[in-house]
Structure formats: C-alpha cells, structure tokens
Amino acid sequence: MTKFLLLLRSSIEKDYSQLTPDDMQRIIQGYEKWAGSLAAENRLLAGQKLTDEGGCVLQPGAGSVSKKDGPYIETKEVVGGYYVIEADDQEHAVRLCEGHPNFEFGSIEIRQIDFMGGPEELA
Predict the structure, then answer these.
(1) Could you give the C-alpha distances from 115 to 14, 60, 108, in angstroms and in order?
(2) Of 31, 2, 8, which Cα lies nearest the Cα of 93?
(3) Which pLDDT band holds residue 100 (cuts at 50, 70, 90)?
(4) How far apart are CA 24 and CA 28, in angstroms?
(5) Residue 18: which of 27, 9, 31, 30 has the closest Cα?
(6) 83-103 mean pLDDT
(7) Which domains does the chain show, CATH number per domain?
(8) ω before 60 within 30° of 0 (cis)?
(9) Higher pLDDT, 100 or 120
(10) pLDDT in tens, 43-85
(11) Which of 2, 34, 45, 120 sits 20 to 30 Å CA-CA off 113?
C-alpha cells in the first residue's frame, strides 16, 4: 500500500479565543474519532498535533546554515498537525479524509511519500 503524509493546515484568521472548553472537547473528540477509524483499519501509521509556538526555518548560507523564525506573520495558514496513512492511491487517500474535523478550521494537504528506492519503512 502507498503511504501518504497529511498536513493539517488551519487559517490564522479564525478567532479561536471564542471556543469554550466544551467546544475544545468536541473538537478533540472529532480528531480522535477520525484517527480511531483509520487505526481500526490499520491505515494510520502516525499522527500528532504540532505545538502552537512558532517553529523555525533553516536556510543555506555562505558555508553555513542560518536559522530564521517562522511561520511568518504574512502567512495565511499554519501547519497544526500531521498524519501518515496508508491508502491504495491518492484518490483513496482523498476519500479517507472526507469528513475530517480539520475542515472546520482549514485544509488538508495530501502528499505521497517517496522512499527513493529504499525500504518503505518509517522510523
């Protein structure tokens, strides 16, 4: 089976401060239910929420690597989490994402993992 990376993107323009504790619990349960259904089919290989603190970007420089803060303020979306799943093909991966709770906040980017001729394993 083919492995895909799902990047969960969320809009920075949504006002999350209005969410109540009950709203947060409902949202968390939605993510758990979706992940649980894929885990039950042995299709979920990994997945985590990413921290809300900004990350960093490494860029090559003159003989060294420079570190810059990120994501940048002009960004309209942030990556808030990821999953690695197995699906028959990209269209199947799309179908598996139907009804995902992240669509309440943003989008999901689906990328096929290329093992570059090596064993198809995730560390």
Answers:
(1) 36, 24, 22
(2) 2
(3) very high
(4) 6
(5) 27
(6) 96
(7) 2-13+21-112 (3.30.70.1060)
(8) no
(9) 100
(10) 999 999 988 777 788 888 878 888 877 655 556 678 889 999 9
(11) 34
H or E stretch covering 115 = none
Q: Are 45 and 84 in contact (CB under 8 A)?
A: yes
Classify residue 76 by burial, with Cβ atoms within 10 Å: 0-12, 13-18, 19+. exposed
> Whole-model pTM?
0.82
Give bridge partners of residue 109 from the DSSP assignment.
7
Nearest to 33 by CA among 45, 44, 23: 44
**Which among 68, 74, 83 has a CA at the least distance from the CA of 9?**
83
